[in-house]
Amino acid sequence: MTPRARSLAVVPALLLALVFAIAGTGPARAGELVVFERKGCVYCQRFERDVAPLYGKTDEGRRAPLRRVDVSQGPPRDVALAAPVRFTPTFVLVEDGHEVGRITGYASDEAFWGLIGALTARLAPARP
């Protein structure tokens, strides 16, 4: 392939990237569930055992994938929290970098699924 042909092959990808940038539908995730954890947290371990293996396979997990954060490291720079996180686990639903809502603590898988279902209903509809 000649150098000119190689440079022309890049044009469609650049045009597609430009369309995404203009439309605002780039690679940023619409929602995510930021899980603040602490080493040795028994309730974090229960969540890990009861819910985490299934979460990504659910509608909630597809709409708001898990992102794990050690609470001792502080909040991620790209997340604007409504209030500080003091207890673990704390599950913060984030959309476009801003907190939508949170679940503080973990009592059981049944309680978690009910609460996360109500929270993810607050997210903007998924883009086609």
From TrEMBL:
The keyword Signal is assigned to this record: yes
UniProt xrefs under InterPro entries: Thioredoxin-like_fold, Thioredoxin-like_sf
Short name of one Pfam family: Thioredoxin_2
All residue ranges annotated as the Thioredoxin-like fold domain in the record: 33-114
Signal peptide: 1-30
The keyword Signal belongs to this UniProt entry's keyword annotation: yes
Domain of life where this protein originates: Bacteria
SUPFAM superfamilies reported for this sequence: Thioredoxin-like
Keywords, comma-separated and alphabetical: Signal
Protein name according to UniProt: Thioredoxin-like fold domain-containing protein
Higher taxonomy: Bacteria, Pseudomonadati, Pseudomonadota, Alphaproteobacteria, Hyphomicrobiales
